[in-house]
């Protein structure tokens, strides 16, 4: 059910983003404002590589959804570049956005006070003190604590910069710090420190030159603390509730996928389906590689990994070659760049970028950073609006039909006590979307239930038939490749 609800929410976002693209193009045409299209070549090349790797996907359903997610992410990137080009839009974004952390922190604090730990992870002795600790999952209104920490990282530097000008922004800043403490993500603390160092790079360099000995002491202390954290996470912190060592195997599994399919990968979102065929040991299973870079490498192969790396390299190269508009009274480039660096770093060893929200936050701040940079521009014509409209209309069935099929699948699951109605719902879902493996699996279970009551050989045969159909659909690509 949760997967279906996620698909429905994503479909609504696809429709809304498509409408926003058309509205902005019509506004640009009427106002004779050119479209700003930075990195359009690299973005197009990366999307083409994603589409190419989809042909070899291990999970067609997930790949299709992921393709639309990345396409809409690219659309949001270009919309951000254009919308934030105006000073007033940037001002509203900076003044309103950080206050999202206030209600989110209240919800997190409520969860901390009312929930119990998932379990006691273990205990250890530190300088004669007996320390017992447990595992908590504080996620606020988001999916999990990792996404919560990533979302907070996206706004915390904005709140910090604005607090230097207006004391009221200390409220969202303190709320952001509270959320990070409750989320209990050690890596988010490291990324925040990295972002602050980059943001204050001039002051940090000047301080290191004036106080060399103190700088060495601080660096040594940070190294010792980091070593202790690594020892804790991969040592005493290990338990049935948390196995940090498995992350090494998940990464090695992703690399193994890339080595066996170096040119095509296993398709976007295919890591979960391919994991049982490539995993190294009988540890915890996972749906994600817990590393943005390794996930892209495994799912799109070496070409996709190179395209994404080139895209980020071209993004940062802009700031070494392009000049700002001298007349702009707002300049928040360093804050935006520090935020982008934090989000990329945070996703390097977490599953952050496997969720739509994290991708959106990354490209929004990339677009914000490029708002004051001179980039490639293109005038909007009536023919361009018609072509984009036609392209969107032609693409609608690729996400609207799976959405409707998913609804009928959920209706069928809710009608399992009425076999005839449930079967009709599942078959209608398959008529809308032949790749609806959930409906095939549900039909297999439904006929197995009928067989348990009727002991009819026909029901048993249908159960096996639908199960084989679902298995073949999942393994078609695997058998074709091998």
SSE topology sketch:
Layout: H1 2-31, E1 35-36, H2 40-54, H3 60-83, H4 87-96, H5 101-114, E2 119-126, E3 129-135, H6 145-163, H7 170-183, H8 186-199, H9 201-210, H10 212-234, H11 246-260, H12 271-278, H13 292-321, H14 333-347, H15 356-369, E4 377-378, H16 382-414, H17 419-432, H18 437-454, H19 457-481
Helix pairs in contact: 1-3, 1-16, 2-3, 2-13, 3-15, 5-7, 6-7, 6-8, 6-14, 6-15, 8-14, 9-10, 11-12, 11-13, 14-15, 16-17, 17-18, 18-19
Q: What can you tell me about this protein's structure?
A:
This protein has 19 helices and 4 strands. The chain starts with a helix and ends with a helix. By secondary structure, the protein is mostly helical. 72% of the residues lie in helices and 4% in strands. It has a two-stranded antiparallel sheet. It has a two-stranded antiparallel ribbon with strand order 2-3. A hairpin with a 2-residue loop joins strand 2 and strand 3 (129-135). The protein is globular, with a radius of gyration of 25 Å.
Shape: globular
Query: How many structural domains can be distinguished in the coordinates?
Result: 2
For the secondary structure, the number of strands is: 4
How many helical elements?
19
Low-confidence parts:
324-330, 476-482
Give the mean pLDDT. 84
Any key phrases for this structure?
482 residues; 19 helices; two-stranded antiparallel sheet; Serine Threonine Protein Phosphatase 5, Tetratricopeptide repeat
What's the short story on this structure?
This protein is mainly alpha-helical and 482 residues long. It has two domains: 35-378, no CATH class; 398-481, Tetratricopeptide repeat domain (Serine Threonine Protein Phosphatase 5, Tetratricopeptide repeat, Alpha Horseshoe), CATH 1.25.40.10. The protein has 19 helices and four strands.
